UniProtKB/TrEMBL annotation:
PANTHER family: CYCLOPROPANE-FATTY-ACYL-PHOSPHOLIPID SYNTHASE (PTHR43667:SF1). Keywords: Lipid metabolism, Methyltransferase, S-adenosyl-L-methionine, Transferase. GO terms for biological process: methylation. Pfam families: Methyltransf_25. GO terms for molecular function: methyltransferase activity. It comes from Methanosarcina baikalica. This is Methyltransferase domain-containing protein. SUPFAM superfamilies: S-adenosyl-L-methionine-dependent methyltransferases. Residues 46-141 form the Methyltransferase domain.
Length: 234
């Protein structure tokens, strides 16, 4: 594991929630509906970085077989609870990270997805993931990366551009704090904040193309500063 990976593995080691804008079931159900729309069918699904299973339990009824993968034992514990409560019998959970997951799989999938996870991977790790995923993708399959942080919109969200309360003083204060964080993080070679790294959609598209895929980028419906990368072969 790389040094930066350790930071995230440690951060998530005792976490129990996926950090959705709201953890109300009505909100999670809406988020899952949007995601199922983009997943657009398939019979088998791998949910990488499934966390507490907040979306996975909504995906499962639409698939024959689903696998949830996460490197956080506490997240998987929460996932197990949720799966039991919902009687989802077609979900298997695997404790693994982006490097170790591939050796633990014994079949390929129609859909490989991740929601709010790739912000914890570097471009190089994303490239390796897409390369490996392509070997576990069935014909006509898709890799769908939900809720990637958009580097063009994320800084605007950070300074409160999308918030209801847009006073000048608040903007200025947040902009100065943001700049201080960026400088301090780059000096320490740390990610800027706990939301991880933002990734330029054009660079993700280049990685997809290099691995023989097309990619379309769709604005996230519930997070103004996030986009979904839908990766497929033509
Ligand atoms: C923000 S949460 C999202 C959880 C879930 N996808 C959801 O939307 O509810 C990110 C999850 O990704 C997992 N994760 C981050 N990096 C990972 C990696 N390299 N390998 C496996 N899991 C990872 C974390 O443990 C955490 O559960």
């Amino acid at each position: 594991m790389s040094k930066s990976k350790n930071v995230w593995a440690e951060f998530f080691a005792d976490k129990r929630r996926g950090g959705h804008r709201s953890s109300a079931e009505e909100f999670l159900a809406m988020e899952a509906r949007e995601k199922l729309f983009h997943l657009d069918g398939g019979e088998t699904l791998l949910d990488f970085g499934c966390g507490a299973g907040e979306l996975l339990v909504y995906y499962a009824p639409e698939y024959e077989k689903t696998i949830g993968v996460d490197f956080s034992p506490s997240m998987l514990e929460e996932s197990s609870k949720r799966i039991r409560e919902r009687n989802c019998e077609n979900i298997t959970l695997i404790l693994a990270d982006d490097k170790t997951v591939w050796d633990k799989l014994d079949s390929s999938f129609d859909r490989i997805t991740a929601a709010g996870v790739f912000q914890y991977l570097t471009y190089q790790e994303i490239e390796e993931f897409i390369f490996n995923a392509s070997n576990y993708l069935n014909k006509g399959g898709k890799i769908v990366l939900f809720d990637m942080l958009d580097p063009r919109l994320y800084p605007l969200w950070k300074i409160g551009m999308f918030s209801q309360d847009k006073s000048c003083r608040k903007f200025l204060y947040k902009a100065v704090c943001g700049a201080k964080n960026i400088i301090s993080a780059s000096l320490k070679n740390h990610p800027i904040d706990i939301l991880g790294y933002s990734h330029n959609p054009n660079k993700i598209k280049k990685i997809a193309n290099k691995n023989g895929f097309e990619m379309i980028c769709v604005q996230s419906m519930y997070y103004e500063y996030k986009y979904h990368a839908i990766i497929f072969r033509t």
